[in-house]
Amino acid sequence: MSRIYDCADETARKDGIVDAASAVRKGELVVLPTDTVYGIGTDAFSPKAVADLLAAKGRGREMPPPVLVGSMRAATALIDDLGTHGRDLMEEFWPGPLTLVCTATPSLSWDLGDTKGTVAVRMPMDPVALELLKEVGPMAVSSANKSGQPAAATMEEALEQLGDEVAVYLDGGESEAPVASTIVDLTYAVPRVLRAGAISIEQLRGVCGTVIGELRKGRTKPKPAESEEPGDAAAESAGATEPADGTELAAKAEEPGTPAPTVGETASAESAAEADARADAGRDEDTAAPNGERSDN
Question: Taking the model in full, what pTM does it have?
Fold first, then answer.
């Protein structure tokens, strides 16, 4: 039987965070609010837990989930190369609806699916999500819905679709801005938009200067005159995808794409990078304040 916590109540919220953190550490699934739509998440470093997450959604390894983090420090432990503009983008738009696709740290002992050596990372602007991420470290998080169904803007919508496959539901109320995150690929010399979303290309260009717009479906290379035109399969050419909730990658039109993380190396011992990412949980000097102020990303 799933446990449901109303996070509008302070006592229930504290109890819910404790229960959800315990569930994540056990490799179970939890539903949590984000600043876009609700997400279904689990321990990013447990291959079985990630496989259970994909099974609950009804999707395969070819659609790996992105990773949510509670701080910039946790993100950089997962990323091998931020490129020229990665840190500037984090400082400007995190926490918030911007997903960054980067080359993953090769030593990570995880298996998110067929990610082609990349990882899609985001720091959400939601106090409940950030509190949980501080407790458990990086989480694999996808939109809280069955594949092909609408993303959940409320806990009730997520519960209706996922039911008892999820151990803990954290109810943060209705999503105020159920708009997908913008996905930017930083694995190229020039940042490339894989999916248009809450952060406009004009905002991105204000930080990076040159940014390649989302590709039209069926194109392998962008044309200069079309650099700002949106498309629903932008991420497919990068080899992965994210969800309509702004938390997951998927190569479908309903959950427009983004490149995914893959580093499928499964070592029995924690890598130094994994230890760093986990150790960051609980440190709050790099974590966004609940009121939306940003202390690092």
Answer: 0.77
3-class SS of residue 255: coil
Query: Is the separation of the CB atoms in 152 and 170 below 8 Å?
Result: no
> d(Cα 290, Cα 10) in Å, to the nearest integer?
14
Quote the strand ranges of the chain, DSSP E: 3-6, 30-32, 39-43, 67-68, 79-81, 98-104, 118-122, 139-143, 168-171, 182-185, 192-195
Express each pLDDT in 134-172 by its tens digit.
Answer: 999 999 999 999 999 999 999 999 999 999 999 999 999
- Cα gap 282→280, rounded to integer Å: 6
Secondary-structure breakdown of the chain: helix, strand, coil percentages, each rounded to the nearest 5: 30, 20, 55
Backbone phi, psi, residue 264, to 5°: -70, 40
Cβ neighbours around 225 below 10 Å, total: 7
Q: How far apart are the C-alpha atoms of 30 and 21, rounded to whole Å?
A: 9
Neighbours of 155 (CB within 10 A): 24
C-alpha radius of gyration, the chain, whole number:
17
Phi, psi of 97 (to 5 degrees): -85, 55
